[in-house]
Amino acid sequence: MDAYLAVVAKREVRTYADRPIPDEVVERLLEAGRVTGSSMNRQAWRFLALESREIRDGVAEAVYAPDNLRGAALAVAIVVTGGATADFDAGRAAQNMMLAALNDGVGSCPNGVADHDRFAALLALEEGERPAIVISFGFPAGDYRPEERSPQEWIRRARRKPATEVISRL
Ligand SMILES: Cc1cc2nc3c(=O)[nH]c(=O)nc-3n(C[C@H](O)[C@H](O)[C@H](O)COP(=O)(O)O)c2cc1C
């Protein structure tokens, strides 16, 4: 898939087909996260691939939208240590994983963590670690196909503030 198309066609997918994600696709998306650049190359993160349904269902209780995780074929929690740059770095890694997954036809959605204490206990986080985001993954249940529209059409359809409001070219 063309990289620009992937970037502008990325929409969140929250309902997933009841189909596993092939292992090589899981490996590719995890590597896309791990290889992401970070501030001073600190890599102050860990990627917890929640492959077990039982564990996903447990962690679902700690996020804002439990159904996103309950219906997912996979979820990846990014946990970080340190200051705000670690959250920025995690955002980069998260988007890279989601775009790599999209390239293999897999949809995804970021999930904010509502209950940090519960999350930390469930996943036995180490001292100083905190959740940055949990990403749910799965083949889309609906008909979401990036290739069926042009980048311009995806941009036109996106529910976003207008360029005149958010972009200044100085
Ligand atoms: C940091 C962050 C946290 C998010 N948390 C949630 C969440 O808890 N549940 C959810 O369904 N979507 C969550 N989202 C997805 C946003 O709602 C989504 O990116 C936005 O509405 C645009 O969606 P679209 O690209 O499909 O238009 C989150 C996104 C980000 C970047």
* Helix and strand pattern: HHEHHEHEHEHH
CATH class: Alpha Beta
Count the domains: 1
What structural category arises from helix and sheet content? alpha+beta
pLDDT below 50 for ≥5 consecutive residues: which ranges? none
Q: CATH superfamily membership, which one?
A: NADH Oxidase
Q: In CATH terms, what is the architecture?
A: 3-Layer(aba) Sandwich
Rg (C-alpha, Å): 16 Å
Q: Spatial order of the strands in the main sheet?
A: 1-2-4-3
Beta content comes to 15-25%
Count of individual helical segments: 8
Number of strands: 4
CATH fold-level label: NADH Oxidase
List keywords for this structure.
170 residues; alpha+beta; NADH Oxidase; four-stranded antiparallel β-sheet; 16% strand; globular; binds flavin mononucleotide
Write the layout of secondary structure elements.
Blueprint lengths: L2 H7 L13 H12 L10 E6 L2 H8 L5 H5 L3 E7 L3 H20 L3 E5 L4 H7 L7 E9 L12 H7 L5 H4 L4
Antiparallel strand pairs: 1-2, 2-4, 3-4
